[in-house]
Specification:
Order of helices and strands: HHHHEEHEHEHEEHHEHEEH
Structural class: alpha/beta
CATH architecture of the largest domain: 3-Layer(aba) Sandwich
CATH topology of the largest domain: Rossmann fold
Largest sheet: 7 strands, mixed
Number of helices: 11
Strand content: 15-25%
Radius of gyration: 21 Å
CATH class of the largest domain: Alpha Beta
Number of strands: 9
CATH superfamily of the largest domain: Vaccinia Virus protein VP39
Strand order of the largest sheet: 5-4-3-6-7-9-8
Amino acid sequence: MFSELQKAYDIFQNEGIEDPLSEILHLANIASGGALYKVDSSLRDLSHLDLAQLAQKRKEGTPMEYIVGKAAFAGLSLHCTEKTIVPTEYTKVLVDVAVDFLKQRQASVKEQAIIELGTGCGNIAIAIAMQIEGVKILATDISPEALEIARKNLDTYNLSDKITLVCGDLFSPFQGLGYEGSIDLITCNPPYIPTSSLKKLPPEVVKFQPRIALEAGPYGMDFFSKMINDSILMLKPGGVLVFEIGAGQEKLVTRILSRNSGYEDIKYFKDEDGVIRVLSAAKRTVSSLEA
């Protein structure tokens, strides 16, 4: 979207249009059905900012979200600091897949239990909870600082009754508490960047965002193996694991899923550019094991 706006801006400027920026914003508002002008009131939240200082920090590579202290995701405005990764639109695919699955089960399941691993600022859990009634979400993160930010976002949207924040690594906080075999959906945007690829990322990602939320070993697979194998113990039969992957990782991840006989019905979901960004797999039911 932004590249198209930049292209249109350059054309308008080259054609001598007076105030090309205003014209492009007006065009974008028309194309978005008026959505752009609806944000006018929220822009007052930025009036206190020192724009010169903001520009200097951007020049140094600091993500805009960290400078402002907020991030936009799936129509939500969320607190965001350097203690959490910045949500991306790729993850909106993950939310859409999870929501579709939960909606399909609503007619037959009154309340659905969800675990989100590595919640960060809480964007995935919050986006799901805002769209689905009758869910109880256990959102974990290994970082207490990240959970402090997530707590602020839960309070903003009054979701503490639907989302419980838990500090710990993967499923370790749930051991011995009776959750095994009771979860309808497990979702995660895991670390998936190979160590050697970190240096290829833009400085605003690798220099400023939490490395623990990005790096996943030599092939980017370190997190996937443990998450996939441990999730099978937590899911109900027919429950689903839904998670984000890096571009081009689907074959390696499918191999890991296929090695675990507890899964079936592996599905792939693409972003708007046609790149596979999300995988899902269901825990085998008793009937499928007998077949």
